[in-house]
Amino acid sequence: MILANVLELWSSVWPAGVTMLGLGSGFALVLLIASEKLKVTVDPKIEQIHEALPNLDCGACGFAGCGQYAKAVLGDPELLGKCAPGGPETSSKIADVLNLQVSDSGPQQRPIVRCRACTADKTLYAQYQGIQSCIAANALANVQACGFGCLSFGDCTRACKFDALHIVDGMTIVDYEKCTGCTACSKACPRNLIEMVPFGYENMMIVACNSKETGKSTRSICKVGCIGCGICVKQTDVFSVEDNLARIDFTRYEPNEQAETAMNKCPTKVIIYRGKTAPEPPQPGKKPVAATKA
Amino acid sequence: MKVNVKGRFSFPGGIHPPEKKDLSREVEIQPGPAVKEVAVMLSQHIGAVCQPLNRKGDAVQAGQKIGDCDAFVSAPVHSPITGKVKEIALRSHAVLGRSSAIVIEAFSYSPTRRSYFKLKDDFDEKNYSAGQICEAVRQAGIVGMGGAGFPTRVKIEPNPQMPKETLIINGCECEPYITCDYRIMLEWTNQIIAGIKLARKASGCSQVFIAIEGNKPKAIEVMNRALESFANSDSIKVIPVKTKYPQGGERQLIKAILKKDVPTGGIPPMIGVVVLNVATAAAIAEAVISDLPLTHRVVTVTGEAVAKPGNYYVPIGTSVEDLIEFCGGVTKKSAKVLLGGPMMGIAIADLKTPITKATNAITVLTKEQIGRAKFARRQTACICCGRCLEVCPENLNPTKIAHAVKYNFLDVAESYYISACMECGCCSYVCPANIELTGYIKTGKIFLARQKKKIPG
After folding, report:
1. Which residues of B fall within a CB distance of 8 Å from A192?
2. pTM tops 0.90
3. Which of B99, B338, B350, B406 is most worth mutating to test chain A (most A CB atoms within 10 A of its CB)?
4. Which residues of B touch A214 (CB under 8 A)?
5. How far apart (Å, rounded) are the C-alpha atoms in residues A186 and A156?
């Protein structure tokens, strides 16, 4: 009885099974032919380059991700060295794949924040209550007395994919241990405060101010702003003053006694060290005269 | 003549916020404060920035040109007082941040004055040629006095590619609190009509509409009566438009009166229309008939936190501080100073900001009003009610754009026509979730401008 039932079942099931099997093998055949006929040849070099890249997809090179950059660099070797997080190591690896020679591109680029004013140093004319981002706050003029200084709403910290920027007491601090030099922060800053400079040494001397106002008005609104006095220029010609603002020629900078003297003589202590082991910046000793008057 | 004050001319969208015009609407235009120092901004208009014509220490006469530029889209600036150029320094500007200005120190306290202009009885616009009017307008440095500050000469000068047919005179004043245009319409009626006739002559327009909101029946009546007394004013018609915000917007006004759409990203002359503010029309009359440059303007100082709200005839370059001081100062409750009205005005942080040609009002709001304002309250999630879509006068989708900006999808924001937004603030006003829609859209525009300037790689 049972056998008869099973046989009956079988006789009704087998056509379906055979049809499925036939369909399956038929499609498999189509796929097999398609995979042979429509084969896309991927240059093995692209995969090699992709492997050499850090695969962070940070976008520092200007492409959508590491895959895009790998393709682009194969087509145009000029783009070699655009990968900031990878640095020279990655560049030489890619160069090996492409059979190219890389020349030494010099020290790596690292960001510096050209404002060292903490909350207490800044003068605020009004309280900003709008959208909490620098780019929106910057649209409303004169909320902060200094039109050049850091707004500390943290657009750069949000742009950083490596957790290398932090806002501490209104001041943006770069963690140079974590920083890969991807330039995302310098692109995010609406006031262009973050500048990429060649870090030739572990610690670099920087002028931590971006104010192009006259010395008098800078001093009346900020305790640690550059007043363009030019004392630093007298010490060493690495410094120059333009638009009431001292600047350092980073390509020629080297730690020496003159630079150290210039730093110590700076009346507003705007020349400071930034880097992996930089000491805490000194505070200006006496209160600026103009500030008390105003 | 019976006036139909129920304006039926309207546009889709818009809101009707509390008008609050009672504070200063019945106060006559008075001479402003006697100033010791004015700071005349070199950039008071849309277009190229002026170059200063004087050096530090030069003596300048009242009405003397002190800054000019060769560019077509530009307007010269003039000294409102007789004095000495103290310095050319940076001053706060509501939009540009810090911008250079010519600071003029008066030899003595300049006396307060009313407008020098008086319309002669024998006025006839036929005595002036179109070219003559355009040149006079350019030389007087007249710009749109309703807020944007676009050089008027560029607007009214005939352009063979875009022939102009219709001239609309904007006396809507849809923004709450502000009453300067209303007072000008009541007190300087003949001067405005003379200016309109000159502008019509210069631009070659065949029909003229004076748009006044229905909440100003007195102005409509006065205008109509004055038009009757003028010869050759048949083609000038007063149109009572519906009282709502932003009725005074150029595109909205054209839509309301002519039922025509200005193409997105385009300008009114493309469809043969010129829109001028009533204050601009008055300035044209002064410039052409009496050769007076634009050195003074009427500014409404208003708001619950001002002791003596009113409309004042002040020299351009007077600091906001001086003017508020002149109005009896602010009360203790003051919390926010706006250049312009509460809807489109820009909050200023520095009271030393000078008044420019486009500043129509100073509004000082109290702490309670600010506390009640939306941004102080908590923002909640969008509930997709669609109210912002209903009120948007440009038929945009503010929520979509704002969210795209918030999460950095700028291409999406662009595909929803972010650039067509005129930042009127209607969407933020009605949003029940307190989302700062206009703020995000404004931020998005800045993002896009930055992105276009810097191309990666």
Report:
1. none
2. no
3. B350
4. 89
5. 7
A115 Cα to chain B: minimum distance (Å): 18
User: Measured between beta carbons, which residues in chain A are less than 8 angstroms from residue B346?
Assistant: 140-141
- Are residues B151 and B178 both part of a single domain? yes
Q: Which chain B residue shows the shortest CA-CA distance from A131?
A: B439
Distance CA B362, CA B340 (A): 6
Task: Write the CATH number for B52.
Answer: 3.10.20.600
Please tell me the distance in Å from A59's CA to the nearest CA on chain B: 9
* pLDDT, tens digit (0-9, with 9 covering 90-100), for B241-283: 999 999 999 999 999 999 889 998 888 989 999 999 999 999 9
Task: Look up residue B20 and give its two tokens.
Answer: 């609050």
Tokens of A94: 């890619």
In a shared domain, residues B133 and B277:
yes
Domain A109-284 coded CATH 3.30.70.20: yes
Whether A63 has its CB under 8 Å from any CB of chain B: the answer is yes
Instruction: ipTM value, please give it.
Output: 0.76
Give the Cβ contact number of residue A65 at 10 Å.
15
What is A44-98's CATH number, 3.40.50, 1.10.760, 1.10.15, 1.10.286? 1.10.15
Structural domain harbouring B381: 377-454
d(CA B307, CA A85): 60
Counted across chains A and B, CB pairs separated by less than 8 A come out at: 65
Q: Is A200 on the interface with B (CB under 8 A)?
A: no
Cβ of A141 and B443 within 8 Å? no
> Among B290, B305, B325, where does a domain finish?
B290
CB interface of A with B, residues 151-190, below 8 Å:
187, 190
What pLDDT digit, counting tens, does each position of A27-86 carry? Answer: 999 999 999 888 888 888 888 888 888 888 887 788 888 888 888 888 888 888 788 888
| B358/B222 same-domain check | no
Instruction: Assess whether B129 and B108 both reside in one domain.
Output: no
A44-98 matches A109-284 in fold: no
Report residue B88 as tokens: 């050319």
Q: How far is CA B23 from CA B20, B59, B173, B333, B399, in A?
A: 7, 40, 15, 17, 34
